[in-house]
Amino acid sequence: MSCSVHAFLCACVCVCFYKFVVQIAMLKNSCRVALKELKHWIVPEKANTPLAVFPASAGILSEPLGVVLIISAWNYPFLLSLDPLVGAIAAGNAMVLKPSEIAPATSSLLAKLVMKYLDNSSIRVIEGSVAETSALLEQKWDKIFYTGNGRVARIVMTAAAKHLTPVLLELGGKSPVVIDAGINIQVATRRIIAGKWGCNNGQACISPDYIITTKDYASKLVDTLKIELERFYGKNPLESKGLSRIVNSNHFARLTKLLDEDKVSGKIVYGGERDKENLKIAPTILLDVPLDSLIMNEEIFGPLLPIILVNKIEESFDLINAGSKPLAAYLFTNNKKLKEHFVMSVSAGGIVINDTTVHLAVHTLPFGGVGESGMGAYHGKFSFDAFSHKKAVLYRGFAGDVAIRYPPYTPGKLRIMKALIVSGKRNIIRAVLGWGKV
Predict the structure, then answer these.
(1) Which among 122, 202, 270, 359 counts the fewest CB atoms within 10 Å?
(2) What is the pTM of this model?
(3) How do residues 126-145 score in pLDDT, each as one tens digit?
(4) From residue 68, how far is each of 93, 99, 131, 143, 386 by CA, in Å?
(5) Catalytic site residue 132?
């Protein structure tokens, strides 16, 4: 087999793997889960009733919100468009999908596929750019689901506020990776590489954004990262068919600006190569990056990975909590107490111990942010709930009608009513018998 044919086949395998695992397999699983579990999700939930309304029964009924707007992102255009759509359909809503204009080929294909295969009386795709999105946001919706960045999320939320429309915002942030000593460093670095560069070359909302480790452990970590990166992407990663390109020239320029800042450019210990014509940036590791640098004050969303050094690993928790709450936080350690401390003290949309990004595939976990990394959650039943209104229903008959709820309101009636609403059985008996205060 010639080298050119082998390279072509490798490229095809990489593309197919990426498309299948992230774009197709996870979406198919969402559909499968919804089809299997929907009959359970739609069953009204039973609710207990207090003695004050006896005899009665109560339940919580899930009903569609109405007409919802889904604005999706470009980095995983099929998954991030159709996964929320599954939840909206399962909950019984009509919806408009606005794919990202930054992925125009996918946007066009989605419009054609939805028109061909889905019910166009309740599901529509609107293509376009800023003007079309702005026009959509001027309309009144029953919910808006937006996946993207914080800047646009503020625009979405402002528009929604005019109609008191609830929003679900899937954003991002600087997702940290804390690395303790005494771990299987080869496995750890491979999992970091898979989550950082394997996931769209860092262009993913849950991609590891930066690493925190101790000064004593940093050299071992960097050496292992170099070995594993070369194993996966070769000595010239810009020529690797397994490395995604940067989505467009604007993002390429943004990442270049982060890398070329004076206080950062001298911190590169691996990578840094760029191909402007083909919009490629090699996996890049930066060691001991200043906290006040540009790269540490915005979400990177690309193949650059800064490493921050601390004296003790416990110092990393305060460092993380000093910033905005991230969409994900990762810890590699064998220390049980450190795991517990991390889970309890670090606030993030989701936490993974000894791996990265894999929680995205667990449909029994809610996927969403907190604070500036987003609000609301979806996946599995959480998607159904995200697009449902939980309607409270109380059933009563005509028996058990008591005089104490009707005027005139005497001290005796008030005493019994207080006992029914706020007191236990013993005090109810005391109130009925007129024994002392309730």
Answers:
(1) 122
(2) 0.90
(3) 999 999 999 999 999 999 99
(4) 7, 14, 19, 5, 11
(5) no
